[in-house]
Amino acid sequence: MEQAQLQPRVHPQETPIMEFSRLNVIYNEGQPNQVHALKDASAVIYPGEFISIIGPSGCGKSTLLHTLDGLNRLSSGKIRIDGREVNGPGGDRAMVFQDFALMPWHTVYENIAFGLRLEGKPKSYIREKVMHYIRMVGLEGFDGKYPHQLSGGMKQRVGIARAFAVEPKILLMDEPFSAIDEQTREIMQEEVLKLMLIEKKTVIFITHSIDEAVFLSNRILLMTVRPGTVVEELEIDIPYPRTLETKLLPKYQEYKSRVWDHLKGEVKRQYQKGEV
């Protein structure tokens, strides 16, 4: 990927790109097996931010992300994008999944082109966009390959390119690096940051990794045990672009400790509630 020299545009005086307020998601509502997954979750997100969401296992991180994508039914609350209330999926958001979610019968090219074809884009436009993102994620020469011919890291590059190709305002990423090895994971972290800065995208990112959250984010939303809510926002005051050397900074380690202290306290609460 080309080197990014840009800083995310994060100015509190800007109009938010997304707001969600007092989100409640209750599965099987009114039934004996009812589960209150999200409770009054709220946050404001500005254009160009990289937001990570982290919390103890089972706290509702993925539920929150899927709700923002319009895949879950809200029990109550509101989601706004550019001031407009949304109640379902839309082209202003795209999801990158942890299990790649590629179609095995399609080539790399066809997987990336899939969303553009659904939108009815002209063939010349599709080719231009697909080849642009193939280059951006470093998959030149692999456009005719099938998913079974790719490594885990390459499959995830395809998933990321497919999401960027439809030009969403907001990219939603659900633990996208959890299925790849540690070395590839660190490389992918740097490359996603570069791509996000070059393309000026807003990213909302789910992870279990404290290190990953601190490395990637402008802000981290810290969630409680279920029913999950956003209980704190931690701003990561480390300039972009970041490299692996960033992880050696004392300030970086301080941020990791703050997130760990939060998680440790929430896990203790889970034990007390008998949920672990």
From TrEMBL:
Matching PROSITE patterns: ABC_TRANSPORTER_1, ABC_TRANSPORTER_2
Q: Which InterPro entries match?
A: AAA+_ATPase, ABC_transporter-like_ATP-bd, ABC_transporter-like_CS, ABC_transporter_ATP-bind, P-loop_NTPase
The molecular function terms of the Gene Ontology recorded here are:
ATP binding; ATP hydrolysis activity
Which keywords annotate this record?
A: ATP-binding, Nucleotide-binding, Transport
Instruction: Report the residue ranges that make up the ABC transporter domain in this protein.
Output: 20-250
Q: Please list every transmembrane segment annotated in the UniProt record, as residue ranges.
A: none
Instruction: Supply the name of the protein.
Output: ABC transporter ATP-binding protein
| Organism field | Paenibacillus piri
Instruction: Please spell out the taxonomic lineage of the organism that makes this protein.
Output: Bacteria, Bacillati, Bacillota, Bacilli, Bacillales
